[in-house]
Amino acid sequence: MHVLVVHSEPRFFREVKALLAQQEAEGAYLPNLNGLRLQLEAQFPDLIVLEQCCLAAGGEQFGVAFDHDPRLPVIFLTSADSKRISAGEERNRLAELLVHLQSQGERTRSAQVIQVGQMRIHAGRMRVTLGDGWIKLPPIQFRILRHLALNANGVVSHHDLASAVWGAEPADDETKRDLIKVHIVQLRRTLGPLFKNYIQAVRGQGYVLVDPESEE
After folding, report:
1. What span, in angstroms and rounded, lies between the C-alpha atoms of 198 and 191?
2. Which of 2, 17, 27, 68 is the most buried (most CB within 10 A)?
């Protein structure tokens, strides 16, 4: 489980980090929401712990997280909440909540496996099983592959892929098309020679994910 803590006090994160370690969870820290987009690209969280005063200063940035996952759980903290957790008064409740969310996350991840031929895409873990091995993909490559897998055997346009990756961002279609092409090349390279042909280009339309060995 990966938890992103957005809090104005680094000391608060250091205190919570020990609690996360007890739950075998990983943590990342931001002092405000200005660097949220880059953090999401580096690793998308299973949970965000957010100090409310940070939200007041960067609400527009916060919306980016829900472009990628509208069901992302968030714990909002007031200044009083932060003080109680730091003092140990609310740590047990926070620990119980983390255990619950982790359990829910495991069940969700087990249901979020998409299989196409010998390729299995694990949405919750952001990794791909290729035959007997597996790889962990960078966030953009994973979102491209997952969206193709959700529409396996059907052509997905450059525009739809770009929307799945970046949301409704202001950029012209030609720019998005070029970016998608670059990431597709990188994705095929990452998948390796045995699996790169799962992604096929359809000239003038987009891309399709298929099982090359299927007779259909």
Report:
1. 9
2. 27
Cα separation, 7 vs 25, in Å, equals 18
Q: How crowded is residue 209: how many other Cβ atoms within 10 Å of its Cβ? A: 25
For 211, residues 6+ apart whose C-beta sits below 8 A from its C-beta are 116, 117, 118, 119, 198
CATH of domain 2-111: 3.40.50.2300
Name the fold adopted by 113-209: Arc Repressor Mutant, subunit A (1.10.10)
Provide the Cα torsion 130, 132, 138, 141; round to 10°: 0
**pTM exceeds 0.85:** no
pLDDT band at 144 (very low <50, low <70, confident <90, very high): very high
Q: What is the pLDDT of residues 183-197, one digit of tens each?
A: 999 999 988 888 888
